[in-house]
Amino acid sequence: MAETTTATTPEAPDVPEGGVPEREVVDPAAWTCPAPLRDHPTVVLGHGGGGALSAELMEHLFVPAYGNPTLAGLGDSATVTLGGARLAFSTDSYVVRPLFFPGGCIGDLAVNGTVNDLAMSGAQPAYLSCGFILEEGVELSVVGQVAQAVGAAAEAAGVTVATGDTKVVEAGHGDGVYLNTSGIGLIPDGVDIRPQRAVPGDVVIVSGPIGLHGIAVLSLREGLEFGAGELASDTAPLNGLVAAMLGVTRDVHVLRDPTRGGVAATLNEIASASGTGVVLTERDLPVPEAVANACGFLGLDPLYVANEGRLVAVVPRAEADAVLAALRAHPHGRGAAVIGECVAEHPGTVVARTAFGGTRVVDLPLGEQLPRIC
Q1: What are the strands of the beta sheet with 359-361, ordered from one edge?
Q2: Domain shared by 296 and 271, yes or no
Q3: Which of 3, 26, 160, 298 has the greatest count of CB atoms below 10 A from its CB?
Q4: pLDDT at 32
């Protein structure tokens, strides 16, 4: 586990509501490096959690095995050229437990997840595939409900499920229904969105309240109640929201959807890929009261909790106010907020400025706080 020491910094300057904060330098002098990762001879749940173990698996096993420059970008989707057109191409698998949860189910989660991965490249998603892996004995009525949810979510997102597959495994060798979705979309001319484009001075924006999906699924799974029914997954297609942003400016540097590992993992990936530091302001993080209460009770950090209908945008400071206004004008971005900035100091490291005037390191999670949430 990493050791951190709080270093005091000047009080953050006051800024107009909704405005972009001025840059503030933090002092990392007292920090210590995290302990090295342990070796794992077998797969553990954390390898699928979107944290350091997932990154290690990609870096040391899959990337060397596949060895090609298209994969090397390691974005939410790959950018490929075919017949002169730039396409985004993505695939994802869904093993969420339970299959149905407040605000959605595995069906709409799968469609929205792949649509959003394509949108994070600035693409206009067009076609999806959908593969069902079914466990022997699962009720056909359940499979039908999931299939209906897939169809409805695809229609809502404006995409076509063009092909698919079904496989059945023996009873006891699955968990009812697993889904895999892949998708392709067209990237407009003049759009270049990738984590390597973040530079010092850029502003970090999140499109709405964080932590809802992970806590909603956990609450149902464990039979807990927080917020008197206020908790529901934020699962939603974000391609319309991205189109609204690009309608304001094509100069969006980075887009990511903070799913497994939450906002913390996403920002660490951006910082590492771009070689910049990131400074967050804790008091500006849009954490719903029900999520804050649940995290306080369970000992979780909302920054590490999964989201399924939010995006993190890194944009030039000169474009930040216009992008923020475009986000807030869209139904899926009404709670958008500026949460920090990219800096030249402490490259590759994310820190949070606390309400007490200090800073803390926001590390890449080792594994996964909440397994099987997507």
Answers
A1: 254-256, 312-315, 203-206, 337-343, 277-281, 350-353, 359-361
A2: yes
A3: 26
A4: 35
Whether the bond between 98 and the residue before it is cis, its omega within 30 degrees of 0, is yes
Residue 307 lies in a domain: yes
171: how many CB neighbours lie within 10 A of its CB?
10
> pTM of this prediction?
0.84
- In the chain, pLDDT over 70 holds for what percent of residues? 84
**Is the per-residue pLDDT at 99 higher than 70?**
yes
CATH assignment of the domain containing 113: 3.30.1330.10
**Cross-strand partners of 81:** 86
pLDDT 10s digits, 103-115: 999 999 999 999 9
Q: Token pair of 368, please? A: 């996964």
The reply to whether 4 falls in a domain is no
Residue 332: half-sphere exposure toward Cβ, Cα within 13 Å:
22
For residue 19, the tally of other CB atoms under 10 A from its CB is 12
Residues 93 and 222 in one domain: no
* 14 contacts: CB under 8 Å, gap ≥ 6: none
Residue 350 structure tokens: 């994310």
Residue written as token pair 């979510």: 153
| Number of other residues whose CB lies within 10 A of the CB of residue 43 | 10
Tokens of 214: 């992970």
Collect all residues with Cβ–Cβ distance below 8 Å to 33 and sequence separation of at least 6.
Answer: 2
Name the residue type at position 158: G
Q: Which domain holds residue 129?
A: 77-186
